[in-house]
Design goal:
Strands 1-2-3-4-5-6-7-8-9-10-11-12-13-14-15-16 form a 16-stranded antiparallel barrel. The chain starts with a helix and ends with a strand. It is of the alpha+beta class. The chain is elongated and about 145 Å long. 29% of the residues are buried. The chain contains 8 helices and 16 strands.
Length: 516
């Protein structure tokens, strides 16, 4: 009965074992059931006895632990704990300050350095993100020229040296729907007027720049251009990626030649032809009908419609209104009698798919100045074309005709070509050749000997102008590297100013161009 009584005591392990045996009893054969149960009972009794001993031992150990006093840590251990706590306090104090000190723990300084580096990288990343889309550039042009054939005593008979610097930046603005917009700004500075004081129609140095109101010793920078442009895909509300028409709107202070009378082979005096008659339409530039201020800029507004539905053959219509004359271009009376110009242009493929650009335009300047210094209205027509005819050959031509106004020359024709250096294994070089005719107007021909525009009592020209001035220029642009180019240049001016008695003028020059 003792064994039976012990088995009835609550022993989880014994109960679990008994339950397992009871559940599996039917699996045993009948003759073996009694013997198996007796053996299991004996085994359970032994296990029960061991559990009772273990419980008794655990109870004794718990009493000893409660009765024994707390064990005191060794002095070495106490010192280590104290040192760790002090170091932890110094680290915490150091991290509370943004400064890095040589007296704080090394780990604190290293943590701060890593944190500062991470902040710098984040700041740099944000700066790069904010500058995304911004473009900027700098160019420096220096020109030295020496003339021959200029009458003795003429100040333009001496060698001349000038330089010009240009800095430009384009800043993109946030889109307004599908409308993209940006701001363009250009600063210009320089010294030297070049050989542009000659009585010839053509001016040999279009790169010369000096603020006229400043001291020649001073190099003064001016804000040449500052204008806004919005590009609107058409039709309004259409799907932008499929749009093949655009409306462009510009307003601000501009160089009108950025948008009108462009030409791929004769448009940039810092890299292509130097004479003004080959850079732009002579009637507008050398003749003065463009109406800009003394520095070459003017306030204005331009709207342009661009169609590329038949791309790569495209077309564009542009209309510009600019302040003109001594009042309009200097923001004193800008649009009472403005300079208005309308241009149609198209891009076509000829000669086996080679690109050509063709432009025709009409202008009217309400504040132009006659050759006698009288303000009057001028108007005219112009054409500018450039066409590639080979892998590295582009030909160009311009024609201008005065419709109204008293001007020194009323018709101008310029022709030329630019050849790439790939034909002689100098792919970065170019050779430019151009020829021009500027025909003296009937009005100037009849009055040139008596004109006194400055009112000093002395005739300004003192000769009878007739015929056409002939201008020729050849340059070779030698690329030293991507940023540095040298261009020797030779110009010829025959019958300068329409003076049949004057010697031909030759101008030898050298241009250095740095671009970044």
């Amino acid at each position: 009965m003792a064994a039976t009584t012990n088995l009835l005591r609550p022993r989880p392990l014994a109960l679990l074992t008994a339950a397992l045996i009871a559940g599996s009893a039917p699996a045993f054969a009948a003759p073996q059931a009694a013997g198996s149960q007796a053996e299991l009972l004996k085994l359970l009794e032994k296990m029960n006895e061991r559990l009772e001993k273990l419980e008794k031992r655990n109870a004794e150990l718990e009493k000893q632990a409660q009765a024994a006093p707390a064990t005191k840590a060794s002095p070495a251990l106490e010192q280590r704990i104290k040192t760790l706590e002090e170091q932890n306090a110094r680290i915490t104090k150091g991290l509370d300050s943004d400064d890095i000190s040589q007296y704080e723990p090394e780990i604190t300084a290293r943590l701060k350095a890593v944190e500062f580096q991470s902040l710098d990288m984040l700041k740099a990343a944000r700066t790069v993100e904010s500058l995304d889309g911004i473009t900027a550039g700098i160019s420096l042009t220096t020109v030295a020229q020496r003339p021959s054939g200029v009458p003795s005593g003429d100040s333009n008979g001496n060698s001349q040296l000038n330089y010009r610097g240009d800095v430009f930046v384009t800043l993109p603005l946030a889109n307004i729907g599908d409308t993209e917009s940006h701001i363009f700004a250009q600063f210009r500075l320089g010294q030297g007027q070049g050989l542009n004081g000659m009585s010839s129609y053509a001016k040999p140095n279009a790169s010369a720049f000096r603020v006229q109101s400043g001291n020649p010793d001073d190099s003064v920078a001016v804000l040449g251009q500052a204008w806004y442009q919005a590009t609107i895909p058409l039709p309004f509300g259409g799907y932008k990626p499929r749009s093949r028409e655009k409306l462009e709107i510009n307003f601000g202070k501009m160089d009108p030649f950025v948008f009108f009378d462009q030409n791929a082979a004769a448009n940039d005096e810092t890299r292509q032809f130097l004479n003004t008659v080959f850079v732009h339409n002579p009637l507008l530039d050398a003749g003065g009908d463009i109406g800009v201020d003394a520095n070459g800029f003017s306030p204005g507004f331009r709207v342009s419609y661009y169609n590329e539905t038949q791309k790569p053959e495209t077309w564009r219509f542009s209309l510009g209104v600019f302040g003109a004359g001594a009042n309009g271009s200097t923001y004193t009376r800008s649009f009472s009698s403005p300079m208005v110009i309308a241009q149609m242009e198209t891009q076509r493929k000829f000669f086996g798919g080679l690109t050509g650009n063709y432009r025709a335009y009409y202008w009217r300047n309400g504040q132009a100045v006659s050759f006698a210094g009288i303000q009057e209205s001028h108007s005219g027509l112009g054409v500018s074309a450039d066409q590639r005819i080979g892998d590295a050959v582009t030909v160009f031509g311009r024609y201008g005709q005065q419709i109204s106004g008293n001007v020194r020359f009323d018709k101008a024709l310029t022709l030329g070509a630019e050849l790439g250096g790939s034909y002689w294994d100098r792919g970065g070089d170019s050779l430019g050749l151009a020829f021009g005719l500027l025909r003296t107007s009937k009005e100037f021909s009849g009055e040139s000997a008596f004109v006194d525009a400055d009112g000093d009592g002395i005739p300004d020209y003192n000769f009878n102008a007739s015929g056409a001035e002939r201008v020729a220029e050849v340059y070779y642009r030698y690329r030293i590297n991507k940023q540095f180019e040298l261009s020797p240049d030779l110009q010829y001016l025959g019958r300068p100013g329409g003076d049949a008695t004057a010697k031909a003028i030759k101008v030898l020059g050298m241009r250095a161009q740095l671009t970044f």
